[in-house]
Write a structure and sequence with these properties.
This protein is α+β, with helices and mostly antiparallel strands. It has three domains: about 25-230, GAF domain (Beta-Lactamase, 2-Layer Sandwich); about 235-330, Orthogonal Bundle (Arc Repressor Mutant, subunit A), CATH 1.10.10; about 330-425. The protein is built from 18 helices and eleven strands. It has helices at about 10, 25-45, 50-65, 80-85, 95-105, 130-135, 145-150, 155-160, 210-230, 265-275, 280-290, 295-310, 330-340, 340-350, 360-380, 385-390, 400-410, 410-425, and strands at about 110-115, 120-125, 165-170, 180-190, 195-205, 240-245, 250-255, 255-260, 315, 320, 325-330. A five-stranded antiparallel β-sheet has the order 2-1-5-4-3, sandwiched between helices. Strands 8-7-6-11 form a four-stranded mixed β-sheet. A two-stranded antiparallel sheet has the order 9-10. The longest helix has 21 residues, at about 360-380.
């Protein structure tokens, strides 16, 4: 592609998620991108020839404090990595992924990689010589390749934007990754729609072709279809699965049925899941309502509606209790924290528990869970884990976490944000942050 061909690559590339169209000159494009990358890292401006998806990713990377000369951090090793992989949902589709992507990786001297929803590599397989080269930049199982850790890269960006994406040459934010080209596609839980991770193919410039992105996307869809066909033990008729982190209305899987609960019913289910022995009506009233004028009749009406939604036999009374075992994302985070698996706990924490709930008992549980995790993250002093928390919606104003992050990753962006938070802390009463111009 010559500079005179067009003032904008967006006009030429029909699919903005594809890095290079057939017939374009990869060597010329690589040179343009290197110049654009140097311009951005020096001045913070993005030349027009950079694709929008890449420009947006560069800006997110810079805001996260990622440096262009950084190296991926290996967070999971040996037994921790093995245990985490064994319990990850994508382990169930790895035979299929290897069957479909493995020959392509081996024949083309590429790598097949699979990451989790936080951008941590779980499997990296493929051509032996290519793996040895990738080892030198820590593109290895257990390494953290999220955008907030390593900047723009296909697996990290795919899970960040929840879209299949191709990253070519100097579109990578990290300079040591710029000799590579990769294409990745997210994989979703077919029951809940939640991103489980991403499939990635990494290699040389030969991957900068629309077919490689389409192929990876097709394999990701095949993996989702395979997951849907597998009989999950969690949806057995006598079990319940409750998802309540990061959402005001919890989601319940009961005997294969997906149930979206109202806010009040979400609160009730969370509390009953915490107390398998059951709660009396008075105990539930105190746990749910700050207003002491709320009558037991109001609570009984809510429980009657909930019983109809759940179906026969699942909600018992005297005391109120669930008759089936409940698996919840709250318990997953708690157990990982208790076992010292801080990175795994942070991965499972998708946001505060029922963030809009005013129920006293739910609010206490929400604070206890968040405080336990953030305290563990601060004590661990892992810059990538701290950055993930600080740049999440629930952590963007967390002064203690930003201070801990500044101590281990004192980038200009981190110091600037910390200064803003400390200025707000010292501001006089009634002061409000000026509106952006």
């Amino acid at each position: 592609m010559s500079p005179a061909a067009s003032p904008s690559r967006e006009a030429e590339v029909t699919d903005p998620w594809v890095a290079l169209e057939p017939g374009a000159d990869p060597a010329e494009l690589a040179r343009e991108l290197r110049r654009a990358h140097e311009t951005f890292t020096a001045a913070g401006t993005v030349p027009r020839r950079v694709r929008t998806v890449v420009a947006d990713s560069w800006r997110r990377s810079a805001r996260a404090g990622v440096g262009p000369d950084g190296t991926a951090r290996v967070e999971l090793t040996d037994g921790d990595l093995g245990s985490y992989r064994a319990e990850h949902p994508l382990a169930r589709v790895m035979p299929l992924v290897r069957e479909l992507l493995g020959p392509f990786a081996a024949d083309g001297e590429h790598l097949l990689a699979v990451c989790d929803a936080q951008g941590r590599l779980l499997w990296v397989e493929g051509h032996a010589a290519t793996r040895r080269r990738a080892d030198r930049m820590n593109f290895v199982p257990g390494a953290h390749w999220a955008e907030s850790a390593m900047g723009t890269n296909a697996p990290g960006t795919a899970v960040a934007v929840d879209r299949p994406v191709q990253v070519f040459a100097a579109e990578h934010f990290s300079r040591r990754v710029q000799p590579w080209t990769c294409a990745a596609a997210p994989v979703h839980d077919p029951r809940t729609g939640r991103v489980l991770g991403a499939l990635d193919i990494t290699g040389g410039n030969g991957l900068a072709h629309p077919h490689s992105l389409g192929f990876v996307q097709a394999v990701a869809r095949a993996a989702e279809s395979h997951l849907a066909l597998l009989a999950p033990v969690e949806t057995a008729a006598d079990s319940l699965e409750l998802t309540a982190l990061g959402r005001d209305e919890a989601r319940l899987l009961a005997g294969g049925r997906k149930i979206r609960l109202s806010r009040r019913h979400s609160e009730i289910l969370v509390l009953l899941a915490r107390h398998p022995e059951g709660l009396t009506g008075d105990e539930l009233l105190c746990a749910l309502y700050e207003d002491e004028s709320v009558t037991p009749v109001t609570l009984r009406a809510e429980l009657a509606r909930l019983r109809r939604i759940l179906g026969p036999g699942l909600l018992a009374s005297r005391p109120y209790r669930l008759t089936a075992a409940v698996a919840s994302d709250v318990v997953v985070v708690e157990r990982r924290l208790e076992s010292g698996a801080i990175a795994a706990a942070a991965t499972a924490y998708t946001g505060p528990l029922l963030p809009g709930s005013q129920a006293p008992a739910v609010a206490r549980l929400r604070r206890r869970l968040a405080d336990g995790l953030r305290t563990a993250l601060i004590a661990r002093r892992d810059p990538d884990l701290l950055a993930d928390w600080a740049h999440a919606p629930w952590g963007e104003d967390d002064l203690d976490v930003w201070r801990a992050l500044a101590a281990v990753r004192p980038s200009a962006a981190v110091r600037t944000r910390l200064g803003e938070l400390e200025a707000e802390l010292m501001a006089p009463a009634g002061w409000t942050r000026p509106a952006p111009r």
